[in-house]
Amino acid sequence: MSNIKGNSKEKKNVIYYSRDYRHLDVSAFWYIIQFVFILIPVVWLYLRSYSRISYFVADFSADMIHKITGNTTSILDTGYFKYFGGVSYVDMAGKHPSFTLSFFSLLISLFLIIVFSLQQNNRKPLMIFITIGLYIHACSSAYFLVFGYKFPYNIDSYSVLYMKQQIVVWLMIMIVYWISTSLITKMVVYRLLSFIALIITLFIFGIVRYILYMIILAKCSYLFMASLYFTFGVLFDFMVMVGVFAIFIRQASRKYNNKNGGGMWKWS
Amino acid sequence: MVVKVLQGYFIFTIIVMVVYAIRHFIFTFNRLFAKQRVSYRDIYDTDLPRVTVMIPMHNEEAVLDNVINSLLKCDYDMDKLEIIAIDDHSEDATPEILDAHHEQNPMIKVLHRTGEGERGKPVGLNDALKIARGEVIIVFDADYRPSKNVIKKLASAFRDPKVGAVMGRVIPINARKNMLTVLLNLERSGGYQVDQQARYNLKLLPQYGGTVGGFRKSIMLATGGFDTKVLAEDTELTYRLYSQGWMVVYDNSAECYEESPESWQVRGKQIRRWARGHNEVLFKYFFKFLSSRHIKGWSKLDGMLLLFVYAVPFVLGLAQIDCLLLFFLGEMNIFAGWGAIIFLGVYNTWGNFAPFFEIGAGIFLDGMDDEIMALPQLCFSFYFYMWYISLGFIDAVVDRVTKRNVKWAKTKRAKDNNQETEGVQT
User: Fold this and answer.
1) Is the same domain home to A213 and A253?
2) Strand, coil or helix: what is B423?
3) Does B27 touch chain A (CB under 8 A)?
């Protein structure tokens, strides 16, 4: 069935089967099998291994940070989930921002907020995201100007938090991605490949970001800690997941919506 | 004490997000895997009701021919069809074009609204209700293009005496114009193909959307017509019907094509107005709906969640401030546990009101391959919606507190930009 919307420039793709009430012909059996024999073992394996994974990440990161900055780094351990073990993290010397840095940082943030608010396109999503980020940074700068001596964290506490959070973000993304892609049960190999690709991408991304953020905190001060956490935090991990999900769904859609895909659908 | 309150709010937000996430997972899985509830197709050939189509217009000279010509080509029995074009204080050539249509086709009636009277869609519809001869009223916006069979599909539902209103599916016609229209197309797909259909499947609360939908004239007349003080007259009607025991049905096959906003500024104003109107309905119907004896169990729960849906971004906006305060108060460890991650996971997978998997399912069912690659960009739209919907929520609170009158503002269309015109309606 050719489905044309409006004029010829607004053509949509050919849809071989009516979209109104179709739904997937899925076997609950295969759904449960995949859940029980793929996701649960992977999650279990991950929970049993995250201590070693965190040690690997910390060891590699400490080495890289030392090579890049020349700073002395060490690897420490801390407890996490009782039955699965603790996590390792990098410790090194950080620094508080100077009054001058906090002052100029506040000025620059406020200046940029004003400049962006005067822009005609200042209400586009990315601009709003950046503006919120600038507000957070301005808050951080103002805090250090007034209460800098009271700042309750050091690089050690950030490093612990990052590692703990990253361990659970990876786990969370595995579960969310698997459940979200479980709508397509007939592309097991492709789904597994996309799953593995996602985990590897996020793993590399998580390590690179860890190294970068630790260097920023060590060299540029704790002034940036709030921004690193709130603005450039786990949002980007989830964006990567949604990106891989989009690629997977596009492939599935192409497979299911061509003329050979009829057997995969049911009609009410 | 302050820290305890902040932590309590943080936990409250987590619970809210988890509840909404579960709701959307259920909708998505239901739409993908369950047997679908089809609308009233089996009574096509029975005696269908007399229908009045109403088209509210303000300065619509660029688009009105499309909607009228599409309606004249529809397959409904013309002896039972009446079209009322509501010209609401137009200042362009709309009145003349409408009069010309009336001369060619007497079935097209024109209601000219001029002078100092109140303006806006609900007032115009109320005036048109007084002269309408149909027992069923179907409304289209002026920039819509109804499909050939949409009237028949929508009208057939009213043969069920329990049905108070019916809603069809809206599909953007300018889906590939720019990134915004691509994203709106994704949202529409998730919203109608999955969300509305799943709510209909599960016998929850499909929503009447104010256009591409219809209602019984008798109910409106008996209940005093549209509330002219509320911006979201469609949501108000939905809750009015449910509170009185009527059904609202959704027909996924009754398609109509719309021109969606092409600039972020226009979209921002539109969503802010929707949020304002929806929250006015929240304040008006919270207790009425909660105490309604016609709605029970899961339907009541879903109705309440739907009622609060335009308040949630404001709750999340406050949660961001809450998190920032906790951070500077030395409570960063609260973010390191399971609860925080669940919060962050759900929060970051939030689109407008549909998470990424729901939109993905909608696109998959619609067979749109390439558009889905824009999906990650919805993460940034989240901030856009949080900002504008929060402003709309604040507007509604101020409306409530100050009892000020609301004014209608028309969504500016791309064609309006070309012609440098403005209007007063949506």
Assistant:
1) yes
2) coil
3) no
Size of interface A-B (CB pairs under 8 A): 181
Phi, psi at residue B411, to the nearest 5°?
-70, 120
Same domain for A130 and A263?
Answer: no
| Helices of type H across B329-373 | 338-348, 356-366
ipTM rounded to 2 decimals: 0.84
pLDDT band at B372 (very low <50, low <70, confident <90, very high): confident
In a domain? residue A3: no
Q: Which residue of A has its CA nearest to B169?
A: A20
Whether A1 maps to a domain, the answer reads: no
Query: Closest partner residue to B324 among A136, A233, A234, by Cβ?
Result: A136
In B, residues 316-345, which contact A (CB 8 Å cutoff)?
320, 323-324, 327-330, 332-333, 335-336, 338, 340-342, 344-345
Q: Which residue of A has its CA nearest to B25?
A: A180
């013309």: which residue's tokens?
B78
Distance from CA of A72 to the nearest CA of B (A): 26
From B32, B323, B345, residue closest to A176, measured CB to CB: B345
Q: Which residue of B has its CA nearest to A126?
A: B380
Domain architecture of chain B: domains with CATH: 1-406+414-426 (3.90.550.10)
Percentage of chain B beyond pLDDT 70 is 89
Residue of A nearest to B254 (CA): A20
> Two tokens at A6?
């409006």
- Are A55 and A115 in the same domain? no
Q: Are A190 and A251 in contact (CB under 8 A)?
A: yes
Tokens coding B163 = 């049905």
Whether residue A2 is contained in a domain is answered as: no
Question: Is A160 within 8 Å of B336 when comparing Cβ atoms?
Answer: yes
Tell me whether residue B1 is exposed, middle or buried, using C-beta atoms within 10 angstroms of its C-beta: 0 to 12, 13 to 18, 19 or more.
exposed
Spell out which residues of chain B touch residue A168, defining contact as CB-CB under 8 Å.
338, 341
If one counts every other C-beta atom within 10 angstroms of the C-beta of residue B242, the result is 26
Distance from CA of A235 to the nearest CA of B (A): 6
Q: What's the rounded Cα separation, in Å, for the pair B343 and A228?
A: 18
Q: Does residue A67 sit in the same domain as residue A125? A: no
Across the interface, whether the CB atoms of A253 and B344 are under 8 A apart is answered no
Domain count, chain A: 2
What's the sign of the alpha-carbon dihedral A187, B189, B313, B247? negative
Task: Return the residue of A nearest to B365 by Cα.
Answer: A19
Q: Which stretch, A27-36, A169-178, B65-74, has highest mean pLDDT?
A: B65-74
Q: Is B160 exposed, middle or buried (0-12, 13-18, 19+ CB in 10 A)?
A: middle
User: For the residues A177-192, what does the mean pLDDT come to?
Assistant: 82
Tell me: the pLDDT tens digits for A59-101?
999 999 999 999 899 999 988 888 888 999 999 998 899 999 9
Structural domain boundaries enclosing A116: 97-150
Residue with tokens 């960009």: B377
- Is the Cβ pair A125, B368 closer than 8 Å? no
Subunit contact A10:B176, Cβ cutoff 8 A: yes
Residue whose C-alpha is closest to residue B51's, from B151, B168, B169, B163:
B151
* Bridge partner residues of B172 (DSSP): B258
Q: In a 10 Å sphere around its CB, with 0-12 CB exposed, 13-18 middle and 19+ buried, how is residue A179 labelled?
A: middle
The span from the CA of B274 to the CA of B286, in Å, is 17
Q: What is the pLDDT of residue B423?
A: 34
Residues in chain A within 8 Å Cβ distance of B36: 21-23, 267-268
